[in-house]
Amino acid sequence: MKEKPSITVCGAGNAGRAIAADCSLMGYSVRLYELEKFKESIKGIKSAGGIEITGVTQSGKTGFAQLDEITTDPKLALENADIIMITAPAMGHIPFFDSFYKYLEDDQCILVNTAYWGSLRIYKRMKELGCTSDVVLAESTIMPYLSLESSPNQVHNFSIMPEQSIAVASFPGHRIKKIFDQLKKIYPQYYEVPNILSTNLEVGNPSIHPPFTLPIAGKVFDEYESCKYYRETSLSGTKIAKAFDAERRKIAEKFGIKTENLDTWVKRTFGYEEKSIDETLKKSVFAEFDFPSWALERTLDEDIGYSYLPLIGLAEAVNVEVPVTKAMTELFGIIFGKNYWKIGITLDKLGLKNLTKDEIVRFLESGSL
After folding, report:
1. What CATH homologous superfamily does 205-366 map to?
2. Is the N-terminal amide bond of 144 cis, ω within 30° of 0?
3. For the chain, what is the radius of gyration of the CA atoms?
4. pLDDT tens across 344-354, in order?
5. Residue of 247, 197, 201, 207 lying closest to 355 (CA atoms)
6. What is the pLDDT of residues 228-263, one digit of tens each?
7. 15-51 per-position pLDDT tens digit
């Protein structure tokens, strides 16, 4: 792969805009690709020829970032691309892959920026579609920024993750060696882990959103169309989050994975520490960040359907009780009138059901049993 790889960013939402603009300002060739049904989201960017970015950036620069292409044409988006980043929520990973898989080239890398078992799900989809392209399938735990679209062709970055804070793995695990050095050059936040168990068992969005939403769910979803989510967090939410965190860490330990506890992660991510996690969140730069209720519900669908369900399956595989994780899954299902077991992903859907702990690890590292 060349010294400065060509990057295609899939998705023109908050994170996609931030990544595309900042990577352009770092000197990379960047194309922004959006699905045809969301073409209105790139209209302003296409008209301007790029994205205006403000706030904190990895490049250390702000201002107008010109993009090489802004398109809904998957062939044009992928041609000669080295790294293809999928920035969409978990439910958008496969629709993006389905849109462009016919145009994949050998030695490209697909990086799913928010894990949720994305690399394994794409691998399974490749098999279903008969796609034989020799590409590296990778995923990271969380986005590098918290960003917000501020106009048709603008984005503002509220914060950036600190260095060595975002785990990256591939499926199968051994293939990360082919791409990690290039990814690390783009974002020094990335650190390599052996397999995607780590990217899915690390602290991240699922550790925050459901636990802190549950105590305020009635207010948020029954009374308001939006809320300042971080400002509304409570000590009750902190207690639920820590109980969930204890279950997550027990599962990780059973698989031989050492992970941060939630308190440490919050302190490192936000750069300071208050007497409780909710107090930290309330005083963060995100406290005035307004979450529409529909967006928060989609976030919960992602965390529960694509993180909690597999977590419950992994817990059963290693004989760990997870009553808090199960309770949140069922309670949010009742609140939203959804059966997450039908709409989310399970170990069965991932091809991991009925495997022993050692078989799961072996399969995720080697791609075979």
Report:
1. N-(1-d-carboxylethyl)-l-norvaline Dehydrogenase; domain 2 (1.10.1040.10)
2. no
3. 20
4. 999 999 999 99
5. 197
6. 889 999 999 999 999 999 999 999 999 999 999 999
7. 999 999 999 999 999 999 999 999 999 999 999 999 9
The CA-CA-CA angle for residues 57, 18, 288, to 5°, reads 80
Secondary structure of the chain as H, E, C letters: CCCCCCEEEECCCHHHHHHHHHHHHCCCCEEEECCHHHHHHHHHHHHHCEEEEEECCCCCCCEEEECCEEECCHHHHHCCCCEEEECCCHHHHHHHHHHHHHHCCCCCEEEECCCCCHHHHHHHHHHHHCCCCCCEEEEECCCCEEEEEEECCEEEEEEECCCCCEEEEEECHHHHHHCHHHHHHHCCCEEECCCHHHHHHCCCHHHHHHHHHHHHHHHHHHHCCEEECHHHCCHHHHHHHHHHHHHHHHHHHHCCCCCCCHHHHHHHHHCCCCCCHHHHHHCCHHHHCEEEHHHHHHHHHHHHHHHHHHHHHHHHHCCCCCHHHHHHHHHHHHHHCCCHHHHCCCHHHHCCCCCCHHHHHHHHHHCCC
* Same topology between domain 7-200 and domain 205-366: no
Tokens of 98: 């389905």
State both tokens at 50: 């790029």
Q: Is there a contact between 140 and 190 (Cβ–Cβ < 8 Å)?
A: yes
- Provide the residue type at 56 as one letter: V
Among 155, 303, 294, 293, smallest CA distance to 228 is for 293
* Domain extent listing, the chain: 7-200, 205-366
The answer to whether the beta carbons of residues 353 and 347 sit under 8 Å apart is yes
Question: CA–CA separation, 72 vs 75, rounded Å?
Answer: 9
CATH architecture of the domain formed by 7-200: 3-Layer(aba) Sandwich (3.40)
- CA neighbours closer than 13 Å in the CB half-sphere of residue 284: 29
Largest CA distance in the chain: 55
